[in-house]
Amino acid sequence: MLLRESISTVILMLGGGATSITNVTGEGALTILVNKMSLREYKTHSN
Fold it and tell me: Which domain of life is it from (predicted)?
């Protein structure tokens, strides 16, 4: 329970937005983090 709350808090701090509130499980958190990192890398390489 505490771990789940910590994960969702971290996502909110990273700017996950509404998606982070619905995906409070560890798997959802990991997916959002990976998506964010992939998007950043894609933007970096495309410039």
Answer: Bacteria
